[in-house]
Amino acid sequence: MAKKKSKKSAAQQKPAEPTSQPKYEVTKDEVTIGTPVPDPELELKEPHPEQKEEIKIDMDKVNEEEKDTDKKRPIKRKNSKFLMQDGGSSPLLRPEFIYHNEDKAQKIWSLMQTYQGIDQKSIQRSIVNHVEYTLAMTRFNFSDFGCYQATAFSLRDRLLESWNDTNQYFTTHNVKRVYYLSLEFLLGRLMQNTLNNINMEKNYREALMDIGYDLERLYDEEVDPALGNGGLGRLAACFLDSLATLEVPAWGYGIRYDYGIFKQVIRDGYQCEIPDFWLSGGNPWEIERPEVIYPIRFYGYTEKYEEDGVERAQWKGGEIVMAKAYDTPVPGYNTFNCNNLRLWKSLPAREFDFQSFNKGDYLSSVESKQRAEYITSVLYPNDNSEEGKELRLKQQYFFCSATVRDVIRRFKKNNSDWKDFPNKAALQLNDTHPAIAAVEFLRILIDEEKLDWGEAWKILHSSFSYTNHTVLPEALETWSVGLINHLLPRHMELIYLINHFFMDEVAKKYPGDYQRMQEMSLIAEGDDKKVRMANLCILCSHKVNGVAELHTKLIQETIFKRFHEYFPNKIENKTNGVTPRRWIHCANPKLSALITEALDDSEWIGELERVEYLENFAEDEEFIQKWIDIKKQNKEKLAAKIEEVVGVKIPINALYDVQIKRIHEYKRQLMNILYVIHRYLTIKDMSPADREKVVPRVVIIGGKAAPGYHNAKAIIKLVNGVGDIVNNDKDIGDTLKVIFYPNYCVSAAQTLIPASELSQHISTAGMEASGTSNMKFVMNGCLIIGTMDGANVEISEEVGEENMFIFGARVEEVNDLRNRLFSGEHKPIDRRLQRVFDSILSGTFGDVSIIYPIIHNLMEGKDYYLVTEDFDSYVKAQNKVDDTYRDQKKWNMMSILGVSRSAKFSSDRTIEEYCESIWKVDRVPIPTPNDTERVRSFCKVYSAAKN
Ligand code: NBG
Question: Where are the alpha helices (DSSP H) in 733-824?
């Protein structure tokens, strides 16, 4: 029996509430209507003098008090207003605002005095009101989809109350905000997550049940907003959840693509791509902001002029496109705070080109409108690779420029000294995709705000930071100098200038070391000169981070070696994490309930450290049985889903072995399916009596291939071919089933992960920066078969290598092995693997032509990803999996230990680290309602001050 741990060890103290609160003044924020179209040439306006004073005093106090009460973990959560309302009889009052026009204030105040209720009647009324007044449907007959939409609108209403109060509170306090710039946010469905975060799932479920609707069915009506490819975009979504939960003032910024990642369908075993127009049914979660709109310039030329003896530049001409904001509220778990995700859509600057129109050329007058709208039409479907297309650079600049302008506008509302900027804003670049934001920021400071270079550079450098997500050469972005020069001429000049100053410094530090200078230069010389975006990001940022310990070490030693030598304190590690709200609580409600029962409270959902206590149950028979039952129920749910989508019946008592991620050669789905073939051939050779002894397996592989990635598509075809043969082989029966799960996406992951027992994270060592699904699987009691790569290394440190199935070459060995293979020194192909190759090439699993070149290369030793090299140790690890699974007690003990030791991989921990060492930002909890008087605390302070 594992030694009992005290529950207290994980307990956290709640932070004290700030005692004195400032006035709460309505300012002209994005929450107020009628913000004029901002003009890039707008002057900086001085804030109101009273406002300036107020800001200073209050924020200092709040910060001081927080530091005192909670030295170790400055960022923690509080209760939400929704909890305060639960069970209360009187409606909760909204805060009292100070309007300059008291009369008007009184009237508005009396109209908007209370929050929307959370009792059954209020919820029902708000839903049917939306059915009739928003959707214009009849109240007596609306579909599940209509009900989903109306329910979403009613939830959005409640979120907006918090959203407004949160933003006004932040504005009044002039707090420092984090801005997370990302070209991808892979949010997944929002309804269940929202209901759970604001603790209203039960209320809504009952309210809906009472009028004849089933909440779980409504969940299935929501489309996945899939504005991302894979891990990078999903990480951004987990970060948004943690930022809000930890009460960090933070905004996500990105693009509102009309088409998210394509839908994958399988026809004759091949992947086909179908456009995902996710907005066709409307999007009830967003708020269009027609008043938040910025002009964005492309092309044109730069003009030099002199002003007060200083040479200045101005970017002129070209084409203007407008960026319009769409906001999605991001509620935190169990907090009153509600952050924002602002996504930009492109629009034409003018509806028509009137000149052409008047000349009678109607069609070409619409052309420019279409060209403008095209910018935010579609997400590029590449994961870990870049295409270098002009439209992609346009997308990047479009969203960066709008974002930087928006951030600056917010800053200028309350501040007049540019030196304060780094104390008010931290901009995080999610990979190099938003790199041009740094140059745009510099351009605005120098050309428009007329700051001198040194000052502007300092402000830029102290506010920006950059996360690297890959060492794969094909994913390291470079843009042709010619293209940047054409599209963004002023930015190209500035990039050359940055490089010029930097090269001077390098030359001073390392005189004559031209090799080093060449490596560190922002420009890769050659026939087609390129700008290295990663180098640009490193230079412009005060901090750079990798996403797992091994990955950070690798970037320090390889791709960014010179920069690490030059700036030894700049590159640091921030191991990724995932949100336990979506990935345990929502995805696996039964497991969540069991954990809550065992721990005797649900605090662990916001403080995952608490699951450590589960270790006490690792050998508890009764608990293990409940654990097994839950997994079984999740497997049944998945089996039903697979029968529905794939048409194959899979047994429940088999081991569910899952590999779901983008299809990529470095992730080695190929090695997985080669092993499956080997397993199939082995079972086929057995006598019926021996087959009885085999541990039955269902192997599930899912993931999308980039549309132009032929080898990845060939692997999908092979998996489907193997499934066709194996699943219909009577000799094999239920001992082996092979499923390609189509259209893998966030909602599919929420069904697949809780049902998995074994999951595969088998990339060639050194190639997967982190991986994040590995963390989700562990949190759902799934065991890992994996290589020592990415975050697997840290997972093994936490859960213990003995509780995983680790195999394969280590990162230190990879280069040698690869060199040997490519020089022809390799050992002969493993005989089992040769047999697998032979069976594939003989056509057993369908058309050979598409897979032939890949198999041929492996046989020739051209095996960059070391599939043939790692195959033997992979088979051994798989044998160990079977042996362990036979001992169900042991297997489940390992599973429970995994969950109990998974706390490190909560994105709350990751975000706390970013806050502390990169962003230097404090949490700012919005005051919660007063328990007895049911009036929000800061309104009370204001009333006291008024009297
Ligand atoms: C991906 C890595 C993953 C990592 C995620 C999130 C890119 C460029 N990189 O290993 O491949 O988990 O980023 O950090 O998409």
Answer: 746-755, 773-779, 792-799, 811-822
In the structure encoding, which two tokens stand for residue 486, read together? 């054409």
Q: What is the pLDDT of residues 313-351, one digit of tens each?
A: 999 999 999 999 999 999 999 998 999 999 999 999 875
942 CA from centroid of ligand 1 (Å): 47
Instruction: Write out pLDDT tens, residues 586-644.
Output: 999 999 999 999 999 999 999 999 999 999 999 999 999 999 999 999 999 999 999 99
Nearest to 244 by CA among 156, 151, 168, 177: 177
CA distance 627 to 613: 15
The answer to whether residue 942 scores a pLDDT higher than 60 is no
Q: Which residues does 555 contact at the CB level (< 8 Å), separation at least 6?
A: 468, 471, 546, 564, 571
Q: Which residue has the tokens 């309602």?
A: 929
Count of CA atoms in the C-beta half-sphere (13 A) of 744:
25
Contact 436, 400 (CB under 8 A): yes
Which protein residue has the closest C-alpha to ligand 1 atom 6? 232
CA quadruple 7, 9, 15, 16: dihedral positive or negative?
Answer: positive
How many residues appear in the chain?
947
From the number of C-beta atoms within 10 Å of its C-beta (0-12, 13-18, 19+), residue 71 rates as exposed
Question: Which residue in 266, 267, 269 sits closest to 725, CA to CA?
Answer: 269
Residue whose CA lies nearest to ligand 1 atom number 8: 384
| Helix runs in 86-141, H state only | 102-111, 120-129
* Lowest mean pLDDT across 173-177, 352-356, 658-662, 709-713: 352-356
Q: Please tell me the distance between residue 816's alpha carbon and the centre of ligand 1 in angstroms.
A: 25
> From the CA of 51, how far away is ligand 1's center (Å)?
43
Q: Which listed residue (582, 668, 776, 901) is catalytic? A: 776
Tell me if residue 424 is catalytic.
no
Euclidean distance between the first and the last CA atom of the chain, given in angstroms as a whole number: 63
- CB of 181 closer than 6 A to ligand 1? no
Q: Do 553 and 572 meet the contact criterion of CB atoms below 8 Å apart?
A: no
Q: What's the chain's Rg over C-alpha atoms?
A: 29
Q: Is 820 a catalytic residue?
A: no
Distances (CA, A) of 483 to 270, 368, 390, 927: 35, 20, 7, 50
Residue 376 and residue 345: Cα distance in Å, rounded?
6
Which residue matches tokens 């967003």?
286
Sign, CA torsion 223/228/231/232: negative
Any residues with CB less than 8 A from the CB of 137 and at least 6 apart, and which? 131, 146
Tell me the C-alpha distance between 574 and 564, whole Å. 16
What is the rounded (10 degree) CA torsion for 785, 789, 790, 794? 70
User: With contact defined as beta carbons under 8 Å apart, do 780 and 752 qualify?
Assistant: no
Residues 6+ apart with CB under 8 A from 660: 700, 701, 702, 703, 741, 744, 748, 749, 752, 753, 759, 773
Question: What is the per-residue pLDDT for 351?
Answer: 55
> Cβ(232) to ligand 1 under 6 A?
yes
What is the residue with the minimal CA distance to atom 9 of ligand 1?
A: 469
Pairing mode, strands 319-331 and 287-298: antiparallel
- Decide if 924 contacts 249 (C-beta within 8 A): yes
Selection from 29, 34, 149, 22 nearest residue 95 by Cα: 22
* Contact assessment for residue 402 and residue 345, using Cβ atoms and an 8 Å cutoff: no
Spatial CA neighbour of 691 closest among 731, 723, 737, 653:
731
774 CA → ligand 1 middle, Å: 12
For residue 931, report the phi and psi dihedrals to the nearest 5 degrees.
-60, -45
- Judge if the beta carbon of residue 661 lies within 6 A of ligand 1: no
762 φ/ψ angles, rounded to the nearest 5 degrees: -120, 30
Contacts made by residues 141-145, CB under 8 angstroms, sequence distance 24+: 144/213, 144/217, 144/218, 144/221, 145/221, 145/281
Choice among 54-58, 357-361, 436-440, 613-617 with the minimum mean pLDDT: 54-58
